[in-house]
Amino acid sequence: MRYQGWLTWVTLGLAVAFVPMAVDSKPAPIQFGSQINQLVERVDPNFNKTTQQTQQRAISTNETPIESIVQNRQLSRTYYYHFDTNVSASAKAVFENAVAVYNQTGIVKLVPGTGTDRQNSITFFVYSKQMPSSGGTTMIESGHGGPQIIQQTGWNAYTANHARAGLNVYYPAAAIRKSVAIHELGHALGLDHSRYRNSVMYPVDQGNTALSAGDINALKTIYGTGAK
After folding, report:
1. What is the pLDDT along the chain (228 residues), one digit of tens a residue?
2. What is the DSSP string of 147-211?
């Protein structure tokens, strides 16, 4: 595109004014304002119209992304979950609340237990990580989680997800929350960060405790409708 090189320099110049705050260890997307659109529209009058059409199509689907490691995997909808020995009662409570939210969908089935190597499992854990301060501002990491695919091919083949979901208890007020536990459990089940604020997978904690339509659709993509 004719303005691509020029737009790159404008983007770099504006980026320093935005500091994302992530709920977990994955980077939050940087949201640029309308300034770039206005500048680019001067070069390409059709840019704004095309962008609006693209955004309308995205909003209509509102799909939550799927972790790349989980895409196109045949995973059972049943998971066995357990807690590390150092998980406090308060952390267990929010994790159990998160489990209930996903079980209510009927798409996945999370049950207490350890499971076998061939079965899906989730380990709930806590950790303590102090974040560095820069310019008097601290970017808090509330937790992190994600899938770990175990696959055996050939005879007796299987695919399993041995996932983990954790809370950063160095910041208990920010981390030991139902919304954060739902977010990290979402990562464990294969959901990636969403750019929509109503999604539990939005990278900055919005206090969301109900799965959005995009979250549910992504779970259906991974696990089917829950009928099996």
Report:
1. 444 444 443 343 433 333 333 456 564 333 333 333 443 344 344 434 433 443 344 444 588 999 999 999 999 999 999 999 999 999 999 999 999 999 999 999 999 999 899 999 999 999 999 988 776 676 789 999 999 999 888 888 899 999 999 999 999 999 999 999 999 999 999 999 999 999 999 999 999 999 999 999 999 999 997 644
2. --EEEE-STT-EEEEEEEEEEETTSHHHHSSHHHHHHHHHHHHTB---S-TTSTT-SS-----S-
Q: Report which of 3, 16, 23, 15 is spatially closest to residue 193, judged by C-alpha positions.
A: 23
Task: Report the topology of domain 78-223.
Answer: Collagenase (Catalytic Domain) (3.40.390)
Q: In the chain, what are the domain boundaries? A: 1-15+33-61, 78-223
Question: Would you say how long the chain is, in residues?
Answer: 228
Residue 144 backbone class (left: φ over 0; alpha: ψ -120 to 50; beta: rest): beta
DSSP three-state, residue 66: strand
Instruction: Tell me if 79 sits within 8 A of 98, measured CB to CB.
Output: no
Residue 172 φ then ψ, to 5°: -60, -35
The answer to whether the predicted template modeling score (pTM) of the entire model surpasses 0.90 is no
The residue to which tokens 């059972």 are assigned: 76
Q: Phi and psi of 184, rounded to 5°?
A: -70, -35
